[in-house]
Each structure stands twice: as structure tokens, then as C-alpha cells.
Amino acid sequence: MHEGHAPGGELAGVLSWLAAFSALAAVVLYTWAAARSRRRGRGWPAVRQACFALGGVSLAVAAVSPLPGGEFTAHMLRHLLAGMAAPLLLVLGRPVTLALRVAGGAGRRRLLAVVRSRVVTWLLFPPLAALLDMGGLWALYRTPVFAATHHAPLLHALVHVHVVAAGVLFSASICQVEPLRRRYGLAVRAGTLVAASAAHAILAKSLYGTPPPGTAFPAGDVRAGAALMYYGGDLIEIGLAAVVAVQWYVASGRALSRARPPAPLVP
């Protein structure tokens, strides 16, 4: 994705525009699928479509649009857009459910086989998804990897692909809104979210005092970027917590309804 000093010149630019085009193409495909579902008489909520569209646009903006602030601050804003905000919005759009709704019988079976496979089930185990997401960020910012991405465009692209993919996995593991093979309990998801939020906050605080190894960003830029990571991450994590809280509220209401004895018949 684009940086103030993009590594690799033309190659970096091509990869950035390819990422932006892919994100917008996914939005167009999703919009077509939602319209097809409605034509079949099976409505699709506009709020889900809006979430997915905003997620795709966020990815495209992170890929190619110049962002305010110094180089590190702009990079951190891209991290929040591509690695946290966009994944949450994409997951809330429930693209797998939509694809299952519009796919034919054979396509539906193949997609369900993938979504409910053992590999996907393990990848969506919340602690593992959190480790892939937060562990990748710690490896990026607390080792020389981040500095190396400024001189290796393919590494730069691979890092951002991992950030987006790990963010989607983490958001999907916490929200659990698709037809998965196994839905992990609210306690596991809430506990994982708290632990991951703490890891993200500690990383941001460490960056405030010590920049990534091998970099030479101005101190003010590093502090501004670290503060953005800290407070911006909190906002997005509150959004994830809100999803879990709503699911807990709905599940509790259903449990109470089942436990409530039926009203006596009045003669």
C-alpha cells in the first residue's frame, strides 16, 4: 500500500493500485449479489450492504490515497483503516451468507465445505486468530521487518496482505456472524477481545517511546502515530465489543423466553 516514501517506485505503485481495484471490484460483486437476492424475493439488509461498501472503500483509500500527517502517522492511519476498521466492516456485511444465498446448489455446497472445513474452523478459533493478528503486528513493529519493507516492495505488499487477512480473521472470529462449523462461546470471544486489546495498547505505548528498529522517523511523528494507534484501536475494539454485547443480549433474551413458564389459560 502507498506510503509517503513508497518502496520500489513503479512496482509499489502497481501493487497499490491493484489492491485498490480488487477492493472496489469486491464491492461491485457484493452489490450485484445483493441486488440478485432482492430480485429473487429474498431481501438483503441495506445496513449490511453499506458496511461492506464502506469496508471496501476503506481498503481502497488505504491503498492509494495520500493521508494526513507525517510518514509514520500516515502509515498508522493506514493500519487502522486496512487492518482494523475495514475488516470489521467487511465481516459485518456477511459476504459468505450472501454468497450462499445467491449461489447455485453445487456452488453452495462447495462454499459450505470450505467455510466449515477443519482448517477454517481452527483459523477462526478466537485465541489463534488473535495470535495471528496481534503477533504479526508485534513482529512487524518490534523487529527490523518494518524498516525492511521500505526497501522491498514485495515484502511491503506481503506484510499488508497479512495485516488485512489477519484483521478479517480476527474480526470474523470475534463476531461469528457467518454459518460456521462451530460457534465459539461468548466468554471465549470476549476474553480474547480483552487480551488482544491489551496487546494492541501495549504495543502502541511501546512505540510511543521507542520507534520500530532501523527507522529514523522524527520523534513527533512517531509519538503522533503511536497515539493514533492507541486511541483509534480503542474505538474499533469498542465496535467489536458492541457486536459481542448485542449477541449476548439476544442470547440472554432467548434463554429467558425458553425458561419462562407458559401463561395459564384463562377460561
TrEMBL record:
<protein>
    <submittedName>
        <fullName>Membrane protein</fullName>
    </submittedName>
</protein>
<feature type="transmembrane region" description="Helical">
    <location>
        <begin position="186"/>
        <end position="208"/>
    </location>
</feature>
<dbReference type="Pfam" id="PF09678">
    <property type="entry name" value="Caa3_CtaG"/>
</dbReference>
<keyword id="KW-1003">Cell membrane</keyword>
<feature type="transmembrane region" description="Helical">
    <location>
        <begin position="120"/>
        <end position="141"/>
    </location>
</feature>
<feature type="transmembrane region" description="Helical">
    <location>
        <begin position="47"/>
        <end position="67"/>
    </location>
</feature>
<feature type="transmembrane region" description="Helical">
    <location>
        <begin position="79"/>
        <end position="100"/>
    </location>
</feature>
<feature type="transmembrane region" description="Helical">
    <location>
        <begin position="14"/>
        <end position="35"/>
    </location>
</feature>
<feature type="transmembrane region" description="Helical">
    <location>
        <begin position="228"/>
        <end position="250"/>
    </location>
</feature>
<keyword id="KW-1133">Transmembrane helix</keyword>
<dbReference type="InterPro" id="IPR019108">
    <property type="entry name" value="Caa3_assmbl_CtaG-rel"/>
</dbReference>
<feature type="transmembrane region" description="Helical">
    <location>
        <begin position="153"/>
        <end position="174"/>
    </location>
</feature>
<keyword id="KW-0812">Transmembrane</keyword>
<dbReference type="GO" id="GO:0005886">
    <property type="term" value="C:plasma membrane"/>
</dbReference>
<keyword id="KW-0472">Membrane</keyword>
